[in-house]
């Protein structure tokens, strides 16, 4: 027994409309075409599916059984096609982003990526710039937001930023610090700068996220060192005698793997569109 999906659709329409005429109108077919479809369908099934009562169609007992299967078959057919079609042009992309830029640069970048690839499947991994570079080298990421020193040619420029001290100016000895992990430029600049000044300090926390660092500073447990763009509503400390923190450049960089969907021209187009460059 062979049953085509369109015959099943017509059968469902006949049941829901109560007549071949209304089903034909709904499906934009002629009544004779629908009648022929239903005749062949009943021949294929080998049992009558309809019985007439006046002008109205009623299902036989076999028809009641068959309608349940017909609906399931049509739904399965449509779901299968929709699933296959939606996966035809999926572009998987693995993006690395330092946590301190997740609230600033990341939303603009994600917006541009989705505009560039209509069916993008994006995985975002928050980690430090050094870990992102390692993951790019090993082919574990396709694209990464990292920081570089001014003048470096690594990646394509997104944004100029500046390290700042945040919190309430403190004369505590030792000075309590909340800073990022040891592989962060601001961690190194803050600790080495204070040591050169021979100023006593105590790191109360090496933070893996900007939100954790800001929470400690807001609670007046420490002063912090982070990028100006990540300071949000924290007080920026000036004229305190604290060592200067470096300027940095935030850039977008890609891996060189052949499977990477982001080509060099794509990278330039996306960076230009973000419009974050000073």
TrEMBL record:
PROSITE patterns: HTH_LYSR. Keywords: DNA-binding, Transcription, Transcription regulation. The keyword Metal-binding does not apply. InterPro entries: LTTR (IPR050176), LysR_HTH_N (IPR000847), LysR_subst-bd (IPR005119), WH-like_DNA-bd_sf (IPR036388), WH_DNA-bd_sf (IPR036390). Residues 3-60 form the HTH lysR-type domain. SUPFAM superfamilies: Periplasmic binding protein-like II, Winged helix' DNA-binding domain. Gene3D superfamilies: Periplasmic binding protein-like II, Winged helix-like DNA-binding domain superfamily/Winged helix DNA-binding domain. The keyword Transferase does not apply. Pfam families: HTH_1, LysR_substrate. One of its GO terms (molecular function) is DNA binding. Belongs to the LysR transcriptional regulatory family. This is HTH lysR-type domain-containing protein. It comes from Pseudoalteromonas rubra. The lineage of its organism: Bacteria, Pseudomonadati, Pseudomonadota, Gammaproteobacteria, Alteromonadales.
């Amino acid at each position: 027994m062979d049953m085509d999906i369109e015959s099943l659709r017509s059968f469902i329409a006949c049941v829901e409309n109560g007549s071949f005429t209304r089903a034909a109108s709904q499906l934009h077919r002629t009544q004779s075409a629908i009648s022929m479809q239903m005749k062949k369908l009943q021949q294929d099934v080998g049992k009558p599916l309809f019985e007439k009562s006046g002008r109205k169609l009623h299902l036989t007992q076999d028809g009641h059984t068959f309608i349940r299967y017909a609906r399931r078959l049509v739904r399965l057919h449509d779901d299968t096609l929709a699933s296959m079609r939606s996966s035809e042009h999926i572009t998987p992309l693995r993006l690395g982003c330092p946590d301190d830029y997740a609230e600033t640069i990341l939303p603009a970048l994600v917006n541009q990526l989705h505009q560039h690839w209509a069916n993008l499947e994006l995985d975002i991994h928050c980690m430090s710039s050094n870990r992102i570079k390692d993951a790019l080298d090993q082919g574990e990421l396709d694209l990464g937001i990292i920081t570089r020193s001014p003048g470096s040619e690594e990646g394509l420029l997104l944004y100029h930023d500046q390290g700042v001290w945040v919190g309430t100016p403190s004369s505590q000895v030792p000075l309590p610090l909340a800073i990022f992990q040891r592989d962060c430029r601001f961690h190194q600049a803050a600790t080495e700068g204070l040591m050169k000044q021979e100023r006593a300090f105590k790191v109360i926390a090496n933070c893996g996220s900007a939100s954790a660092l800001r929470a400690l500073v807001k609670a007046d447990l420490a002063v912090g060192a982070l990028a100006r763009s990540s300071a949000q509503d924290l007080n920026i400390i000036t004229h305190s005698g604290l060592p200067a923190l470096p300027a940095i450049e935030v850039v977008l960089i890609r891996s060189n793997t052949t499977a990477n969907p982001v080509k060099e021209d794509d990278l330039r187009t996306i960076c230009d569109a973000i419009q974050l460059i000073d």
